[in-house]
Amino acid sequence: MIALLLALGSSLAYGCADFLGGLGARKAHVLRTVMVAAPASLAVELLLWPVLGASFSPAALGWGAASGVASAAAFALLYRTLAIGPMNVLSPVTALVSAALPVTVGLLQGERLGMAGLLGLPLTLAAVVLVSAGQGAGSSRPSRTALLLAFGAGGAIALQLIFLHQAPSDSGVAPLIIGRAVSSAVTLAAAGVMHRRLGPEKPAYAMSVTAGVLDSLANLLFLLAARSGDLTVVAVITALYPAGTVLLARSVLSERLHRGQLIGLGTAAVAVSLLALT
Protein backbone atom coordinates (compact mmCIF):
# COMPACT_ATOMS: atom_id res chain seq x y z
CA MET A 1 0.00 0.00 0.00
CA ILE A 2 2.85 2.40 0.78
CA ALA A 3 4.43 1.71 -2.62
CA LEU A 4 1.06 2.28 -4.28
CA LEU A 5 0.55 5.66 -2.58
CA LEU A 6 4.10 6.73 -3.43
CA ALA A 7 3.57 5.73 -7.07
CA LEU A 8 0.31 7.70 -7.19
CA GLY A 9 2.12 10.74 -5.78
CA SER A 10 4.86 10.30 -8.37
CA SER A 11 2.27 10.07 -11.14
CA LEU A 12 0.55 13.27 -10.02
CA ALA A 13 3.85 15.16 -9.75
CA TYR A 14 4.97 13.97 -13.21
CA GLY A 15 1.64 15.03 -14.70
CA CYS A 16 1.86 18.54 -13.22
CA ALA A 17 5.49 18.88 -14.33
CA ASP A 18 4.60 17.83 -17.86
CA PHE A 19 1.76 20.33 -18.01
CA LEU A 20 4.06 23.21 -17.04
CA GLY A 21 6.93 21.97 -19.19
CA GLY A 22 4.68 21.65 -22.23
CA LEU A 23 3.39 25.19 -21.77
CA GLY A 24 6.91 26.48 -21.31
CA ALA A 25 8.08 24.78 -24.50
CA ARG A 26 5.41 26.70 -26.42
CA LYS A 27 6.88 30.03 -25.30
CA ALA A 28 10.54 29.30 -26.12
CA HIS A 29 12.75 26.58 -27.58
CA VAL A 30 12.43 23.35 -25.63
CA LEU A 31 16.12 23.40 -24.69
CA ARG A 32 15.68 26.80 -23.08
CA THR A 33 12.94 25.32 -20.91
CA VAL A 34 15.02 22.27 -20.00
CA MET A 35 18.09 24.45 -19.27
CA VAL A 36 16.10 25.99 -16.43
CA ALA A 37 14.13 22.91 -15.31
CA ALA A 38 17.04 20.47 -15.01
CA PRO A 39 19.28 22.59 -12.72
CA ALA A 40 16.24 23.48 -10.58
CA SER A 41 15.57 19.78 -10.19
CA LEU A 42 19.21 19.17 -9.24
CA ALA A 43 19.03 21.90 -6.58
CA VAL A 44 16.06 20.16 -4.94
CA GLU A 45 17.86 16.81 -4.85
CA LEU A 46 20.97 18.40 -3.32
CA LEU A 47 18.76 19.85 -0.58
CA LEU A 48 17.38 16.36 0.08
CA TRP A 49 20.88 14.89 0.50
CA PRO A 50 21.34 15.81 4.20
CA VAL A 51 17.80 14.64 4.97
CA LEU A 52 17.67 11.29 3.16
CA GLY A 53 21.38 10.52 2.85
CA ALA A 54 23.34 9.29 -0.15
CA SER A 55 25.84 6.50 -0.78
CA PHE A 56 27.90 7.06 -3.92
CA SER A 57 28.86 3.47 -4.65
CA PRO A 58 30.03 2.47 -8.16
CA ALA A 59 26.63 0.91 -8.86
CA ALA A 60 24.80 4.03 -7.70
CA LEU A 61 27.07 6.19 -9.84
CA GLY A 62 26.64 4.00 -12.91
CA TRP A 63 22.88 3.58 -12.77
CA GLY A 64 22.43 7.21 -11.75
CA ALA A 65 24.46 8.42 -14.72
CA ALA A 66 22.50 6.18 -17.08
CA SER A 67 19.23 7.53 -15.71
CA GLY A 68 20.57 11.05 -16.21
CA VAL A 69 21.21 10.53 -19.90
CA ALA A 70 17.73 9.04 -20.29
CA SER A 71 16.25 11.90 -18.26
CA ALA A 72 17.82 14.55 -20.49
CA ALA A 73 16.35 12.84 -23.54
CA ALA A 74 12.98 12.45 -21.80
CA PHE A 75 12.86 16.14 -20.85
CA ALA A 76 13.55 17.35 -24.37
CA LEU A 77 11.51 14.76 -26.28
CA LEU A 78 8.45 14.96 -24.02
CA TYR A 79 8.25 18.74 -23.86
CA ARG A 80 8.76 18.96 -27.61
CA THR A 81 6.08 16.30 -28.18
CA LEU A 82 3.56 18.14 -25.99
CA ALA A 83 4.43 21.43 -27.68
CA ILE A 84 3.70 20.28 -31.25
CA GLY A 85 0.73 17.97 -30.45
CA PRO A 86 -1.92 16.85 -30.93
CA MET A 87 -1.73 16.00 -27.22
CA ASN A 88 -4.82 13.79 -27.24
CA VAL A 89 -3.04 11.35 -29.57
CA LEU A 90 0.59 11.69 -28.54
CA SER A 91 0.11 11.66 -24.78
CA PRO A 92 -1.41 8.13 -24.69
CA VAL A 93 1.38 6.83 -26.94
CA THR A 94 4.06 8.25 -24.66
CA ALA A 95 2.35 6.99 -21.50
CA LEU A 96 1.83 3.46 -22.82
CA VAL A 97 5.44 3.10 -23.96
CA SER A 98 6.68 4.45 -20.62
CA ALA A 99 4.56 1.81 -18.83
CA ALA A 100 5.05 -1.19 -21.09
CA LEU A 101 8.86 -1.33 -20.99
CA PRO A 102 9.26 -1.30 -17.17
CA VAL A 103 6.42 -3.80 -16.79
CA THR A 104 8.17 -6.11 -19.24
CA VAL A 105 11.46 -5.75 -17.37
CA GLY A 106 9.77 -6.44 -14.04
CA LEU A 107 8.13 -9.60 -15.34
CA LEU A 108 11.39 -10.79 -16.91
CA GLN A 109 13.11 -10.28 -13.55
CA GLY A 110 10.69 -12.70 -11.96
CA GLU A 111 8.01 -10.45 -10.49
CA ARG A 112 4.63 -12.17 -10.28
CA LEU A 113 1.13 -10.76 -9.87
CA GLY A 114 -1.85 -12.31 -8.09
CA MET A 115 -5.31 -12.56 -9.65
CA ALA A 116 -6.21 -9.02 -8.56
CA GLY A 117 -3.00 -7.72 -10.12
CA LEU A 118 -3.61 -9.59 -13.37
CA LEU A 119 -6.98 -7.85 -13.59
CA GLY A 120 -5.73 -4.48 -12.43
CA LEU A 121 -2.71 -4.24 -14.73
CA PRO A 122 -4.61 -4.22 -18.08
CA LEU A 123 -7.27 -2.00 -16.53
CA THR A 124 -4.57 0.51 -15.61
CA LEU A 125 -3.17 0.47 -19.14
CA ALA A 126 -6.68 1.09 -20.48
CA ALA A 127 -7.10 3.93 -17.99
CA VAL A 128 -3.83 5.49 -19.21
CA VAL A 129 -5.22 5.66 -22.74
CA LEU A 130 -8.66 6.94 -21.71
CA VAL A 131 -7.41 9.57 -19.26
CA SER A 132 -4.79 11.00 -21.60
CA ALA A 133 -7.00 10.99 -24.70
CA GLY A 134 -8.97 13.99 -25.80
CA GLN A 135 -12.32 14.09 -27.55
CA GLY A 136 -10.94 12.20 -30.52
CA ALA A 137 -13.41 13.34 -33.12
CA GLY A 138 -12.06 16.07 -35.32
CA SER A 139 -8.59 15.97 -33.87
CA SER A 140 -5.75 16.33 -36.31
CA ARG A 141 -3.58 13.37 -37.15
CA PRO A 142 -0.04 13.54 -35.81
CA SER A 143 2.85 13.75 -38.21
CA ARG A 144 5.38 10.96 -38.50
CA THR A 145 7.90 13.17 -36.70
CA ALA A 146 5.46 13.75 -33.83
CA LEU A 147 4.81 10.02 -33.45
CA LEU A 148 8.51 9.24 -33.45
CA LEU A 149 9.03 11.91 -30.78
CA ALA A 150 6.22 10.38 -28.70
CA PHE A 151 7.73 6.89 -28.91
CA GLY A 152 11.14 8.31 -28.13
CA ALA A 153 9.81 10.25 -25.13
CA GLY A 154 8.04 7.17 -23.77
CA GLY A 155 11.14 5.04 -24.25
CA ALA A 156 13.37 7.60 -22.55
CA ILE A 157 11.00 7.89 -19.57
CA ALA A 158 10.88 4.09 -19.30
CA LEU A 159 14.66 3.77 -19.37
CA GLN A 160 15.02 6.44 -16.71
CA LEU A 161 12.64 4.56 -14.41
CA ILE A 162 14.29 1.20 -15.10
CA PHE A 163 17.78 2.56 -14.41
CA LEU A 164 16.65 4.18 -11.15
CA HIS A 165 15.09 0.89 -10.09
CA GLN A 166 18.37 -0.95 -10.72
CA ALA A 167 20.33 1.35 -8.39
CA PRO A 168 21.19 -0.13 -4.94
CA SER A 169 18.36 0.25 -2.44
CA ASP A 170 20.75 1.58 0.21
CA SER A 171 22.13 4.39 -1.95
CA GLY A 172 19.69 7.03 -0.73
CA VAL A 173 19.26 9.91 -3.17
CA ALA A 174 22.68 9.38 -4.77
CA PRO A 175 21.22 8.00 -8.05
CA LEU A 176 18.93 11.03 -8.30
CA ILE A 177 21.75 13.52 -7.67
CA ILE A 178 24.09 11.87 -10.16
CA GLY A 179 21.31 11.46 -12.68
CA ARG A 180 20.21 15.05 -12.53
CA ALA A 181 23.80 16.34 -12.61
CA VAL A 182 24.41 14.31 -15.77
CA SER A 183 21.13 15.40 -17.39
CA SER A 184 21.90 19.04 -16.59
CA ALA A 185 25.38 18.72 -18.10
CA VAL A 186 24.01 17.02 -21.23
CA THR A 187 21.32 19.68 -21.61
CA LEU A 188 23.74 22.59 -21.18
CA ALA A 189 26.20 21.01 -23.61
CA ALA A 190 23.45 20.52 -26.21
CA ALA A 191 22.30 24.10 -25.72
CA GLY A 192 25.86 25.32 -26.19
CA VAL A 193 26.20 23.44 -29.46
CA MET A 194 22.79 24.59 -30.72
CA HIS A 195 22.80 28.12 -29.29
CA ARG A 196 22.30 29.73 -32.70
CA ARG A 197 19.13 27.68 -33.26
CA LEU A 198 17.48 28.38 -29.91
CA GLY A 199 15.88 31.63 -31.03
CA PRO A 200 15.65 34.93 -29.13
CA GLU A 201 12.67 33.98 -26.96
CA LYS A 202 13.35 33.85 -23.22
CA PRO A 203 12.12 30.81 -21.30
CA ALA A 204 9.17 31.00 -18.95
CA TYR A 205 11.35 30.91 -15.85
CA ALA A 206 8.67 30.37 -13.22
CA MET A 207 6.99 27.54 -15.14
CA SER A 208 10.32 25.93 -16.01
CA VAL A 209 11.61 26.03 -12.43
CA THR A 210 8.35 24.64 -11.06
CA ALA A 211 8.39 21.87 -13.67
CA GLY A 212 11.92 20.93 -12.62
CA VAL A 213 11.04 20.90 -8.91
CA LEU A 214 7.98 18.74 -9.53
CA ASP A 215 9.97 16.38 -11.74
CA SER A 216 12.53 15.98 -8.95
CA LEU A 217 9.76 15.21 -6.46
CA ALA A 218 8.26 12.69 -8.89
CA ASN A 219 11.61 10.95 -9.32
CA LEU A 220 12.06 10.73 -5.55
CA LEU A 221 8.59 9.29 -4.98
CA PHE A 222 9.11 6.76 -7.78
CA LEU A 223 12.47 5.69 -6.35
CA LEU A 224 10.95 5.17 -2.89
CA ALA A 225 7.99 3.32 -4.39
CA ALA A 226 10.19 1.03 -6.48
CA ARG A 227 12.29 0.20 -3.42
CA SER A 228 9.24 -0.84 -1.44
CA GLY A 229 7.20 -2.54 -4.18
CA ASP A 230 7.34 -4.34 -7.52
CA LEU A 231 8.50 -2.44 -10.59
CA THR A 232 5.63 -4.03 -12.55
CA VAL A 233 2.98 -2.37 -10.37
CA VAL A 234 4.83 0.86 -9.55
CA ALA A 235 5.66 1.64 -13.19
CA VAL A 236 2.13 1.19 -14.47
CA ILE A 237 0.67 3.35 -11.68
CA THR A 238 3.28 6.02 -12.37
CA ALA A 239 2.26 5.92 -16.05
CA LEU A 240 -1.09 7.40 -15.04
CA TYR A 241 0.69 10.77 -15.02
CA PRO A 242 -1.50 12.16 -17.86
CA ALA A 243 -4.31 12.31 -15.27
CA GLY A 244 -2.42 15.07 -13.48
CA THR A 245 -1.96 16.94 -16.75
CA VAL A 246 -5.64 16.57 -17.64
CA LEU A 247 -6.91 17.68 -14.23
CA LEU A 248 -4.56 20.66 -14.17
CA ALA A 249 -5.66 21.68 -17.66
CA ARG A 250 -9.26 21.45 -16.44
CA SER A 251 -8.69 23.65 -13.40
CA VAL A 252 -6.21 26.15 -14.88
CA LEU A 253 -7.16 26.35 -18.55
CA SER A 254 -10.85 25.45 -18.09
CA GLU A 255 -10.52 22.59 -20.57
CA ARG A 256 -13.46 20.21 -20.57
CA LEU A 257 -13.17 16.64 -19.36
CA HIS A 258 -14.69 14.44 -22.05
CA ARG A 259 -16.74 11.35 -21.32
CA GLY A 260 -13.89 9.01 -22.18
CA GLN A 261 -11.58 10.82 -19.75
CA LEU A 262 -14.16 10.57 -16.95
CA ILE A 263 -14.50 6.86 -17.67
CA GLY A 264 -10.71 6.63 -17.61
CA LEU A 265 -10.52 8.25 -14.18
CA GLY A 266 -13.11 5.81 -12.87
CA THR A 267 -11.26 2.90 -14.47
CA ALA A 268 -8.04 4.10 -12.86
CA ALA A 269 -9.70 4.12 -9.43
CA VAL A 270 -10.87 0.53 -9.89
CA ALA A 271 -7.48 -0.57 -11.24
CA VAL A 272 -5.58 1.02 -8.37
CA SER A 273 -7.92 -0.68 -5.89
CA LEU A 274 -7.22 -4.06 -7.52
CA LEU A 275 -3.47 -3.49 -7.54
CA ALA A 276 -3.64 -2.56 -3.88
CA LEU A 277 -4.86 -6.10 -3.19
CA THR A 278 -1.81 -7.74 -4.80
Properties at a glance:
278 residues, mainly alpha, 0% strand, single chain, globular
Describe the structure.
- With 278 residues, the chain is mainly α.
- It contains eleven helices and no strands.
- Helix 1 (2-27) packs antiparallel against helix 2 and helix 1 (2-27) runs antiparallel to helix 8.
- The chain is globular, with a radius of gyration of 18 Å.
List the helices and strands and how they pair.
Layout: H1 2-27, H2 30-52, H3 58-84, H4 87-108, H5 115-132, H6 144-166, H7 174-193, H8 205-228, H9 231-238, H10 242-252, H11 259-276
Helix pairs in contact: 1-2, 1-3, 1-8, 1-9, 1-10, 2-3, 2-7, 2-8, 3-4, 3-6, 3-7, 4-5, 4-6, 4-9, 5-11
Please work out how many helical segments DSSP would assign.
11
Find the structural class using helix and strand composition: mainly alpha
Q: Label the overall shape.
A: globular
Distance between the termini: 9 Å
Beta content: under 5%
Q: Indicate the mean pLDDT.
A: 80
> How do the helices and strands follow one another from N- to C-terminus?
HHHHHHHHHHH
Radius of gyration: 18 Å
Q: Please give the largest β-sheet.
A: none
- How many beta-strand runs? 0
